[in-house]
Write a structure and sequence with these properties.
This protein is an alpha+beta fold. A five-stranded antiparallel sheet has the order 2-1-10-9-8, with helices on both faces. A five-stranded mixed sheet has the order 6-5-4-3-7.
């Protein structure tokens, strides 16, 4: 099937994925990563879906290996770990150190997404509350008391008052109006409470410049506009998200007609009563945004929500343990995995490529409709998210709209993990992890590997007609490696 025929239908793709119609009926029920025989089922059009088509010719491991040997030998990739499997059968088509724990960077968000979607209910929303304690001797609505802004872990909470896209984020202005409508027109103090999340605000293995470079906000259950100075602003994040949120709420209160005295941070008094609340979008919507945009704040918050749901501390350690436990409960092997965070920013994170590919396969297979968001949230090559500005070069443009993958970048690794329908219409899952810092040449080299899969007619009957890209050609196309510089987009 020509690649051009498979680049259209993105709207249909998104709709079908969200409707859970990726799976054939009936289909095999092999556990992730284990071989199985393809069953009969309804053919899914690859132009609309990266479908589990049991009638598509199965890729031959030898042909896939021949196809990838050249692109993976590009010197800019160092000595990459890689894994390619048939999504339907689980057959391993190519493996290179695939069971060795390696630094994943932001591809770990696939694991975080899987854990959130299997642990948390799909209708769950993160709630931000305003609780009020009247002055001593006063009634519940007496003026001049203390108002706490209690964060529930929603990094999408916004100070924006302009019209926003669907789904709407929770707004401080709505919360402030509710406070005023409750009859409170004067408070002596507004206090920000982000203590639902515990422990250190930054993880082991995080670079000192992550906050000032704008990659992440120090973790708190209370933050507004992802710790940025204004909605949709770029640049450095605040180092005190709870204090910044309290200040923004005080401004919203004044606009709503509530006079405010001092502004501070601290834990809410147990006797304070709720007077207002706003809610985030649902968990699947947050997961999709986290994956598409590689949102580190959302990843850390979702990890802590998993920890809380599993009775673990809402800390980096609790979140990491909760995510790995959720994977194991879903039948996904986690041998050798060791995480310091759930965003992938830590250079100390380690997980096997086989674990992340198994998580993808769990989302693809029948019986897990709640995990379809893992697939719909993956950036689409040349179109959305962190792949929106990639796959425009001549030697990778053929895979635009075909490759769907989560990106990752740290000073020690550049990674890509996702899915692609090959030229025979067969859905393949892959994980690629190059132990080198991201730069333009590195990303392009990984994109060539994914493009080689997309353009491969790798079945035993068609592979002889598909040319393989040689190592010399790949190296020549990418040029000599240039000195790497610290990236301002770590974790993406």
């Amino acid at each position: 099937m020509p690649l051009a025929a498979r680049t259209g239908g993105l709207t249909a793709l998104a709709g079908a994925l969200l409707a859970g119609s990726l799976s054939p009926t009936p289909g095999p029920t092999a556990t992730p990563g284990s071989p199985a025989s393809p069953g009969s089922g309804t053919r899914v059009e690859a132009s609309a879906l990266p479908g589990l088509d049991p009638d598509a010719p199965q890729a031959d491991p030898a042909a896939v290996t021949a196809r990838l040997t050249g692109p993976l030998a590009d010197p800019v990739l160092g000595n990459p770990a890689a894994l390619v499997v048939d999504a339907l059968t689980g057959q391993v088509l190519f493996a290179q150190r695939s069971t060795e724990p390696t630094a994943p960077a932001s591809t770990i968000k696939i694991a975080t997404a899987t854990a959130a979607l299997t642990t948390l209910t799909p209708d769950k929303r993160l709630v931000t509350r305003a609780v009020y304690l009247p002055p001593a001797g006063g009634s519940a609505a007496s003026q001049g008391g203390t108002l706490w802004l209690v964060g529930g872990g929603d990094p999408t909470l916004t100070a924006n008052t302009e019209p926003v896209d669907y789904p709407p984020a929770a707004r401080l202005s709505d919360l402030a109006k509710q406070v005023h409508d409750a009859g409170i027109t004067s408070v002596a103090a507004v206090i920000g409470d982000g203590t639902v999340y515990e422990g250190p605000a930054q993880a082991a293995g995080w670079r000192d410049g992550y906050v000032t470079d704008g990659n992440v906000t120090p973790v708190s259950a209370l933050e507004v506009d992802a710790g940025r100075r204004a909605p949709d602003a770029a640049g450095a994040r605040t180092t005190t998200p709870d204090a910044a949120a309290a200040g923004a709420f005080a401004s919203a209160l004044r606009t709503a007609g509530v006079s405010v005295g001092t502004v501070a941070t601290g834990r809410a008094d147990a006797g304070a009563q709720e007077v207002a609340s706003v809610q985030s979008p649902t968990i699947p919507v947050l997961v999709e945004r986290m994956l598409t945009d590689s949102d580190n704040d959302l990843a850390e918050s979702l990890g802590r929500q998993v920890a809380i749901a599993r009775g673990l501390p809402a800390t980096f350690a609790g979140a990491s343990a909760g995510v790995l436990a959720a994977l194991r409960d879903a039948g996904i092997p986690t041998d050798g995995a060791s995480l310091q965070d759930t965003s992938g920013l830590s250079i100390e994170d380690r997980i096997a490529p086989a674990t992340l590919v198994a998580a993808l396969r769990t989302a693809v297979m029948p019986g897990r409709p709640a995990l379809r968001t893992v697939l719909s949230g993956l950036p689409v090559a040349g179109f959305t998210g962190t792949l929106g500005d990639r796959y425009s070069a001549g030697d990778t443009s053929a895979a635009a709209g075909v490759v769907r993958a989560k990106t990752g970048s740290l000073r020690i690794v550049t990674s890509l993990a996702g899915m692609v329908t090959d030229a025979d219409g067969r859905l393949l899952l892959f994980g690629l992890f190059a132990p080198v810092e991201e730069q333009g040449l590195t990303k392009m080299a990984l994109d060539r590997v994914a493009t080689a899969l997309a353009s491969c007619g790798c079945s035993a009957t068609t592979s002889t007609n598909v040319p393989s890209t040689g190592a010399a050609g790949a190296a020549g196309a990418s040029g000599a490696q240039t000195p790497a510089r610290p990236s301002a987009s770590a974790g993406r």
